[in-house]
Amino acid sequence: MIWESERTALQTLTLHYMHGFGMVGQLSKNISFDRISFDRISLGTDAGTWRQTSVFADFLYMSGVGGKVQVTSSIFDNPHDDPISVHGTCVQMKSIGRAARKVVFSYEQSDTAGFPQYYLGNVLRFVKRSTMIPTAVEDYKVSAVAGPNGIVTVGKLREMTVTLDKELPAELAVDTFVAETMTYNPEVYIAGNTFKSTPTRGILVTTSK
Length: 209
Known about the structure:
Elements: E1 2-3, E2 6-14, E3 23-26, E4 29-38, E5 60-63, E6 66-72, E7 75-77, E8 84-87, E9 91-97, E10 102-106, E11 123-128, E12 140-146, E13 159-164, E14 177-181, E15 187-191, E16 194-196, E17 203-205
Parallel strand pairs: 1-3, 2-4, 3-5, 4-6, 4-7, 5-8, 6-15, 7-16, 8-17
Antiparallel strand pairs: 9-10, 9-14, 10-13, 11-12, 11-14, 12-13
């Protein structure tokens, strides 16, 4: 788990078995993977285990990372989900306080809760849910935020209140718009890798860069 980190490089690793996700990056910047092997054939797994896969979900799951994600010269063999997944998490608008420039957002996916979405100074963009097209105004900077922090496990783990640095756009409406973080919206470089026995997508990437 690569969490709140910068300039993380993993190189020349062979991973025999991981019970859930392989490697998860979150709220971090500039992560690189080089010569990582998730190769079930070459691992010499004990035949008595009947093991056919080395991970039960995504091998590399980069959720809300910034800077650059780079994956090179690695082997991905027989996961139970996408070998490489890079994306952010949109949060849905639940209430608007225009005078105070405050917006309450929520995580809508039932398995998503408990971790922060924004820090002071982060930049976000409003996006219309039905089209995924952003509003025709500039991005906004977070000047205050209250909500889950990744440590506390009680209370409202799916809601956050965010104060922004300027007046909110007129077209914003509850449940019609979501917010996407631009601070954790990475450039992605994937080259020289081998993908085998993949039951889903090989590479799933959602980023504006």
